[in-house]
Structures are given as C-alpha cells and as structure tokens.
C-alpha cells in the first residue's frame, strides 16, 4: 500500500477462539498497584 | 454509527496514527488518508474528492480511498465489536492472585500513603504464620484449573515481617509440588530494611520486585520521610542499586508516585534512568480530591503535556538502549492479552483479592480498611457474594462511560479504587485517570510507530 502502513494487523477478535484461559498475570501485580493498565500485559497462551 | 466510534485517530511524534478500536489493528497513514477518514463513513468517494480537491488531486484521493476500503473489507478498519456483551467472566469464582498484607506497619511516613502510613486505619500488626499458610491454602483451594498463581508480599512494609515471607515462600513450594501448581511470588518494598540476606532471597525467589522511590531526591524526600521526619532517599537508593545490580535479567520495577507537587514527573523517571535503573514506573497518586497533593482536573493539561514530552525523550533513549522500559509506554500490539482479559480488567474482588494480617479478604489492597468492602476471610471463605458479583460485573461492557471510549480494550475499565475514591461508585470511572490513560496509550503507540518505522 502506498498511503497506509499497517504496523499491527492482528485482530483481537481472533483471540476469542482461544482466549480467556485466565493464566496471565493479574495486571495490578506487575508494577502499578494503582492504575490498571491491561493492554501492556503478556498473553501466556501462545 | 457515527464516525469516530469504531476508529480513533491522532497525530503524535510526527506520525498520523489510526487505531481500529474493535480489532486492535494499528495503521500509519499519510495526510490524505488522515483527511479522508474525517468523511469516509458519511460521504461517497465523489463527495470526498469534491471536499478535498483543493488539497489533493483526484487520483491521489481515489487511490487512498481504495486502500481504506481494502482494510475495511479485511476487518482491520471500521470493524464492528464482537458479540461478547454477555461475556461470562469467572463464573466459577476462581481466585488466582492474592496480595498478602504481611505487615500493617511501616518504617516510613509517606504523606500520600493510602494505607494511613502502613496501618490501614486498623492499628499496627503483623501477619502470623498460621494466617499466612492458611492464605496460601485458600488460594490453592480456590484456584480451580489455573496453574499459575500469584502472591504479592505487600504491606505496609513487608520487610518488617521478612521471616514470614521466607517461611511462606518455602511453604508455597511444598504446596505447588503436591498440587501441580506454580506460585509466582512478588514483593513490593520501600527498601529501608534491605540487607545482603534479604536481597539474595528476593533475587532468588521473587519473580518480580517493585521498588518504591519517587525519583529525584528532593521530590522523594518531600513526601517519603522516615519516622523521625528525615528524608529517606539516601538510605534507600544504594540498597536498590545493589539489589538491581545483583538481579541479573529478572524482572523488577522501580516505582514512583507523582503528585501535584511534581507534575514534571518525567524528570523523576529520567533521574531513575540516570541512576542506572532501566525498568521504571511513575504512577499518579491515588487519594481523595481535597488533599493538597491530589491530582485534580486543573492539573490535567500539564500532565498530558508531560506524558507527550516524556514520549519524545523515551524514543531518543530507546533508540540507544532497548532495555529502557517505562511501564505505561509498554504496549505489545501483536502478543498482548486476549479480548476477554481486556474486557474484564484487573480482576479485583473476583480472581484477585487482598488479605489482611488477620486473614480478612478485601477486593484489593486499595480497599483494605474500609469495612464496607470486607468480602470474607481466608478461614471461612468469601461471605459477601453480592460484593463479589458487583466487582465481577464491573467491566467495560457494563460501565456506561466505557462503552463509547476508544481506549476501553487497553485500560479495561480502569482502577475500581480510583473510581470509588472519586465517585463513590466502582461503575463510574475516575475521569482524570481516564484522560491520563488515553494519553499514555497514544504515547505508547506513537513510540512503537517511531521505533518500528
């Protein structure tokens, strides 16, 4: 494409198939203890 | 559906960025695409050509329009939300993470402490071995089919009860062997009592360690004082340096709190970096709005500018040093959490709970000490099922303000304690916090765009 560069083409909806296993880290335990950022957590199921 | 609800576009750090909200796809676009997106849903291609003909030639507009169309067909632009409104979350009431308050006592007197200088308004106390062991057993018994269980040693100051921490780690190792589970132990400490023995134990057994300090000496010493009222910086800094030097590549975060007294908090993050720390977090203070150090709406513009300023410094440093990490600027667009996790958020009060020295259970560490939020205890289990349900249902599909927010799958509804402190309702997000989180996500994506492009 000339006008658009896709830097992430993965689709969150695909994660519905395998997702929700609950094994990933509880977000608040990682560093913040206050502000709940989930989008930067790692998936444990790939 | 109106424009804007399925995509979010912004310009930051010299990039035109478009986020497809529901798929999570991220695109860098040129100016013509960026302009077309203002009209794409409401107007035909001919109408758009007419509208933009003064700026771009017809061929360029048609070409760009076609590229948008292709991505739309591929489900990577203007995609619709999946039908997961009725998402079933933790119906089995599995608990997989505990914050263990091993000491409701502290050797610092930080002015902003949400734990009332360590005692959580309930008198100073230490957890005993009986309660600690029972907490681990309670976690094990309630963990269903989850293999990875998390225990954070918290306080007050957990090093004030470090013999218990050691015994519980050893007990946990016995339990995991018997039950085919894995404990991830972490600890959150102010570092005052660190010595070689504690550093070695922590580095051997803790998957992550959160080191509390506020950045620059004068900023730290203004808020984080010893019991005798002196600054704590010079006591703590060398100990944290030693711990991190000996830690190898295991995880840690040096974590500061910023308040209205240091709205230039990027200077504190950079001060950490210049002191040799690579994994850094600076968190907005959580408190009632009437405190003089509270972050209020009037500070918001300055804070958002500060995040943007820091994102520019961050890109520069990151180009030289890939190990530099700022917790809120980390984002993994390809391997991040699944949609289910993003929808339900932190899990407090459902899969994550806090345990007091007496064994009482609360939805999370931030609610400890507020009797209305006592949810049960580790000896007899969860008693307040209604409260657990309320927390279980507090997700981005049920919070009205989150429904239309572009950032809902990144912040996942925000911190319940922030919401409660501000609005006395866990379903009503803390607006100032939302604006900060949105800016952090924009910064994080723009950083990635700059580093990858």
From TrEMBL, chain B:
Protein's UniProt keywords contain Protein biosynthesis: no
Q: Could you tell me which PROSITE patterns the record lists for this protein?
A: MOAA_NIFB_PQQE, RADICAL_SAM
Q: Name one Pfam family in it.
A: Fer4_12
Q: Which cofactor does it need?
A: [4Fe-4S] cluster
Give this protein's Gene Ontology molecular function annotations: 4 iron, 4 sulfur cluster binding; metal ion binding; oxidoreductase activity
Domain (Radical SAM core): residue spans on this chain: 92-328
Keywords for this entry?
4Fe-4S, Iron, Iron-sulfur, Metal-binding, S-adenosyl-L-methionine
Q: Which InterPro entries match?
A: 4Fe4S-binding_SPASM_dom, Aldolase_TIM, MoaA_NifB_PqqE_Fe-S-bd_CS, rSAM, rSAM_sf, SCIFF_rSAM_maturase, SPASM_CteB-like, Sulphatase_maturase_rSAM
Q: Does the keyword 4Fe-4S apply?
A: yes
**Can you name this protein?**
Six-Cys-in-45 modification radical SAM protein
Q: Which organism is it from?
A: [Clostridium] ultunense Esp
């Amino acid at each position: 494409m000339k006008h658009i560069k896709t830097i992430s083409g993965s689709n969150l909806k695909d994660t519905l198939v395998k997702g929700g296993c609950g094994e990933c880290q509880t977000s608040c335990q990682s560093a913040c203890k206050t502000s709940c950022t989930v989008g930067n957590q790692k998936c444990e199921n790939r | 559906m109106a424009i804007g609800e399925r995509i979010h576009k912004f310009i930051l750090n010299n990039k035109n960025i478009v986020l497809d909200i529901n798929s999570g796809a991220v695109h860098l676009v040129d100016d013509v695409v960026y302009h077309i997106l203002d009209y794409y849903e409401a107007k035909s291609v001919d109408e758009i050509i007419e509208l933009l003909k003064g700026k771009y030639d017809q061929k360029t507009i048609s070409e760009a329009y076609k590229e948008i169309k292709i991505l739309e067909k591929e489900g990577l632009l203007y995609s619709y939300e999946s039908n997961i409104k009725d998402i079933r979350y933790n119906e089995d009431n599995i608990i997989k993470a505990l914050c263990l308050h091993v000491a409701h006592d502290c050797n610092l007197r930080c002015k902003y402490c949400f734990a009332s200088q360590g005692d959580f308004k309930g008198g100073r106390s230490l957890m005993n071995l009986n309660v600690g062991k029972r907490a681990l057993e309670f976690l094990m018994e309630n963990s269903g089919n989850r293999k990875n269980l998390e225990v954070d040693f918290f306080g007050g100051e957990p090093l004030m009860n470090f013999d218990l921490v050691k015994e519980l780690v050893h007990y946990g190792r016995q339990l995991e062997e018997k039950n085919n589970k894995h404990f991830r132990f972490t600890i959150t400490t102010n570092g005052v009592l660190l010595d070689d023995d504690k550093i070695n134990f922590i580095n051997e057994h803790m998957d992550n360690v959160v080191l509390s300090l506020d950045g620059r000496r004068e900023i730290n010493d203004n808020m984080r004082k010893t019991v005798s009222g002196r600054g704590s910086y010079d006591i703590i800094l060398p100990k944290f340096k030693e711990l991190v030097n000996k830690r190898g590549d295991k995880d840690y975060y040096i974590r500061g709190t910023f308040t209205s007294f240091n709205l230039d908090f990027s200077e504190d993050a950079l001060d950490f970096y210049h002191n040799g720390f690579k994994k850094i977090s600076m968190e907005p203070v959580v408190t009632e709005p009437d405190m003089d150090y509270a972050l209020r709406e009037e500070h918001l513009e300055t804070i958002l500018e500060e995040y943007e300023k820091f994102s520019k410094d961050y890109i520069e440093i990151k180009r030289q040093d890939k190990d530099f990490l700022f917790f809120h600027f980390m984002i993994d667009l390809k391997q991040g959490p699944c949609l289910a996790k993003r929808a339900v958020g932190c899990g407090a009060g459902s899969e994550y709970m806090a345990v007091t020295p007496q064994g009482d259970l609360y939805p999370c560490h931030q609610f400890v000490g507020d009797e209305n939020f006592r949810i049960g205890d580790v000896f007899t289990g969860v008693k307040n099922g209604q409260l657990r349900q309320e927390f279980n249902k507090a997700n981005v599909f049920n919070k009205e303000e989150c429904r239309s927010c572009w950032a809902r799958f990144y912040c996942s509804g925000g911190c319940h304690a922030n919401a409660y402190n501000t609005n006395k309702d866990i379903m009503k997000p803390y607006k100032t916090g939302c604006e900060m989180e949105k800016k952090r996500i924009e910064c994080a994506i723009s950083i990635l765009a700059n580093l990858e492009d």
